[in-house]
């Protein structure tokens, strides 16, 4: 058996470590993917079975998309500014800004929840009203 030079020895060690890590990570990733696909399929089935719930979920997503996008943009921008300027007080400065922004986001999401509930209420009233009318027609 020949003695390997240092760079070749390190390469073999890293390669075997990578292979071992891959053998542990791949089954975990596959199991996670399978669980996610199952969850999505189950969620779709539940939402298709209960149209008022589907209306609520879609309305909530629609009404909260812009506030959440603005919040993410604000967090990214303030993070970049704070990290660009800061040193010692970076975490406190961004934490304060995000706390204020979270307070504002809370009220927007509360409004989104209200409008989603209102939308789902009227959709449900129409949906169940239509079901009652169809039963009465039979």
UniProtKB/TrEMBL annotation:
Membrane listed as a keyword: yes
Keywords linked to the UniProt accession: Membrane, Transmembrane, Transmembrane helix
Membrane-spanning ranges: 55-74, 81-100, 106-130
Name used for this protein in its record: Uncharacterized protein
Native source organism of the sequence: Polyrhizophydium stewartii
Organism phylogeny: Eukaryota, Fungi, Fungi incertae sedis, Chytridiomycota, Chytridiomycota incertae sedis
């Amino acid at each position: 058996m020949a003695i390997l030079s240092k760079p070749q020895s390190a390469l073999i060690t890293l390669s075997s470590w990578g292979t071992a890590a891959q053998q542990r990570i791949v089954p975990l990733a596959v199991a996670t993917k399978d669980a996610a696909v199952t969850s999505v399929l189950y969620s779709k089935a539940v939402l298709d079975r209960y149209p008022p719930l589907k209306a609520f979920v879609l309305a909530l997503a629609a009404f909260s998309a812009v506030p959440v996008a603005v919040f993410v943009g604000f967090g990214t921008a303030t993070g970049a500014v704070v990290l660009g300027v800061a040193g010692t007080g970076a975490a406190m400065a961004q934490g304060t800004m995000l706390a204020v922004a979270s307070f504002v986001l809370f009220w927007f999401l509360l409004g989104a929840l209200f409008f989603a509930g209102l939308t789902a209420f009227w959709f449900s009233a129409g949906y169940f009203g239509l079901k009652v009318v169809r039963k009465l027609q039979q």
